[in-house]
Design goal:
Helices cover about 5% and strands about 40% of the residues. With about 475 residues, the protein is mainly β. It folds into three domains: about 160 residues, Cupredoxins -  blue copper proteins (Immunoglobulin-like, Sandwich); about 150 residues, Immunoglobulin-like, CATH 2.60.40.420; about 140 residues, Immunoglobulin-like (Sandwich). A six-stranded mixed beta sheet has the order 11-10-13-18-15-16, with no helix packed on it. A hairpin with a 7-residue loop joins strand 2 and strand 3. The longest helix is centred in the N-terminal third of the chain and has 10 residues. It starts with 5 loop residues before the first helix and ends with a strand. The N terminus is likely disordered. Bound molecules: CU-O-CU linkage (C2O) and copper (II) ion.
Length: about 475
């Protein structure tokens, strides 16, 4: 079985046309086939996140070479149209960009050693791909992720489909926490005893880097809300008060029939798209509330503005489906995957950081996520064949399990009556057994890991090799 090893890194560096020393590739002009890349610069900034003071050493992405302030930009792409971005590393440690949920070529997936070389400070990497699916996605590093994502490097992607129904307004919400002390400075990113349980929560909760922000939307409108849980730990239970709301897409894929939102649970990595019918009177508000945990709290508020557009929630029609291959269950090969706790030895040092513990495993193997070598794939998959992943959560905690580069269908579960549309991330409930069907139609090494980053970094990670 092939393994990801240091040799991959060397082979990767030599072969990586996308890698360049800063300056060397900057003069290259885009053509029609490869559009001029957006300059996406990972860099430090500071931000007012807590009430106590300014937070130094926040990490963000800026478009262009200048200093960025505030949240990473929402990247807009078009389904079926080429997109290009040149990552510049303005940090003081290696990084990469992973395009969460986009089914793109393996070489663009952003996993150091497995799919590309590390991007060291001052260096860059060119990403170019054509997103095949429309929907809400996001981007983040795949190196030293507990720190880099924890410090701010989580941004949202909107892939537009010109054939989508037209809504009156659109609001994009990036939900995440921060682990800050009373003075606003970062505190230790995790507690080992929490990493061995549900994960360590932040101390400051934000939407779009603001505490309980208020967003305006036209009164009486149908407003599309795109939400991503980009936090390293928190699972949300979303409720909307003060308006009718319809769920139109989950994890980047349209639901077959929009349905009224009651309470929806989603974990790190997952996305929710809603249409909210705003109240008719100017100034009236709609509240997005998190119901998980003992005290409900406000995520964000929407405020109606202007004269009512008098729209009707029943006019919300399904979005066009994405072109995801239909699995052929009659020929599927089963792959059992057990998610368990472990007590293996601590992982060794890694360029992408280790948090120094092993608490979790997939099929009894603990692998600390961002590559440390060598490790064998969970399974070798044949290109074009259908597989049935029999996932079993043998722990009392929920795990948002994410697969890179492919979408799967949840075809059965002992814990849910309603099955979601195709997805790249399933929030596996405690003791849930589910069956995930997929067509292995994208060649390469694709990671499968828990998106509670402490779980990923303490063993709950693996990959498939598709050829
Ligand atoms: Cu958001 Cu390895 O992924
Ligand atoms: Cu987990």
């Amino acid at each position: 079985m092939p393994t990801i090893s240091r040799r991959m890194l060397l082979k990767g560096s030599a072969a990586a046309a996308g890698s360049f020393a800063l300056g060397a590739g900057l003069a290259v002009r885009g053509s029609i086939a490869s559009p001029t890349p957006h300059l996406l610069k990972a860099q430090f900034t500071e931000a007012r996140l807590a009430s106590g003071g300014i937070t130094p050493r926040v990490m963000t992405y800026g478009l262009g070479e200048d200093a960025a302030t505030g949240m990473p930009p929402v990247l807009r792409m078009r389904q079926g149209e080429p997109f290009a971005a040149r990552l510049l590393n303005g940090l003081d440690e290696p990084t990469t960009v992973h395009w969460h949920g986009l089914r793109i070529p393996n070489a663009m997936d952003g996993v150091p050693e497995a799919t590309q070389p590390y991007v060291y400070p001052g260096d860059g990497f060119d990403y170019a791909f054509t997103p095949p699916d429309a929907g809400t996605f996001w981007y983040h590093p795949h190196c030293n992720t507990l720190t880099q994502m924890g410090h701010g490097l989580t941004g949202m992607i909107v892939v537009e489909n010109p054939a989508d129904p037209v809504f009156d307004a659109e609001i994009v919400l990036n939900l995440r926490d921060w682990r800050l002390g009373a003075d606003g400075a970062f505190i230790a990113p995790f507690k080992p005893r929490d990493a061995a349980r549900g994960g360590t929560y932040g101390t400051v909760r934000t939407a779009n880097w603001q505490r309980e922000p208020v967003h305006d939307a036209p009164a009486g409108s149908l407003t599309r809300i795109r939400i991503a849980a980009t936090d390293v730990t928190r699972i949300y239970a979303l409720k909307v008060d003060g308006a009718e709301a319809s769920v139109i897409a989950l994890d980047g894929n349209p639901v077959e029939r929009p349905f009224p939102l009651d309470i929806l649970e989603f974990g790190p990595g997952q996305r929710v798209e809603l249409v909210v019918r705003m109240p008719d009177a100017e100034g009236e508000t709609v509240t997005l509330t998190n119901m998980r945990g003992s005290h409900p709290w406000t995520i964000a508020t929407l405020r109606a503005t202007g004269a009512s557009l008098k729209r009707d929630i029943r006019d919300v029609t399904p979005l066009p489906a994405n072109p995801i291959a239909e699995p052929d269950l009659s020929t599927a090969t089963a792959i059992p995957l057990d998610f368990t706790a472990t007590s293996e030895a601590a992982p060794g040092p890694s360029i992408c950081g280790t948090i120094g513990y092993s608490f979790w495993a997939i099929n009894r193997v603990a692998w600390p996520g961002d590559p440390a070598d060598p490790v064998a794939p969970l399974a070798d998959l044949k290109l074009g064949k259908t597989y049935l992943l029999q996932v079993r959560n043998r722990t009392p905690h929920a795990h948002p399990i994410h697969l890179h580069g492919l979408s799967f269908r949840v075809v059965g579960s002992n814990k849910r009556a309603i099955l979601p549309p195709p997805t790249d991330t399933i929030l596996l409930l405690p003791d849930e057994h589910a069956e995930l069907a997929l067509v292995a139609d994208n060649p390469g090494d694709w990671l499968l890991h828990c998106h509670i980053i402490e779980h990923q970094k303490t063993g709950m990670s693996g990959y498939f090799h598709i050829a």
